[in-house]
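Request: Have a read of the protein record below and say how the chain folds.
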Amino acid sequence: MKKNLSSYLFKGFLVLLILSLPLLSLAITTDNYGLTETAAKAGLWTEKPKLFLIISRVINVILSVLGVIFVTLIIVAGIQWMTAGGNTEAIQQARTRITNALIGLIIILCALSISYFVIERLKKITEIQKGGGIYFEVE
């Protein structure tokens, strides 16, 4: 029962996190205490972002979280392998976990490159030059 409750809580947390990502990228206040001028001097966006910029930020956050999950999986598998104590079944399970994590990393990197390509093309089409894509540009 306790395991089911914790898995439901974890799944609920993930759903809330995924649903709140677009709201985080839209967090623009009207009373900003001079931050708009500072952002303009730094070359960042000061007006409400376009839809594809919001999408690119959400993609960036999701891929960042997936990267952290990848590193965690590699560390867990490495600890599992080191503490296997010669148990071939545990070693094989750790190897499988590492292989699956590397396949996931390859998928993450492919998704990153595709999204970067698409966002850069959208920036060229709409003639937007400053930040807001997958990576913020430094001028």
About this structure: The helical segments are 2-25, 35-42, 51-82, 88-126. The CA atoms of residues 35 and 46 lie 9 Å apart. Confidence is low (pLDDT under 50) at residues 132-139. The radius of gyration is 20 Å.
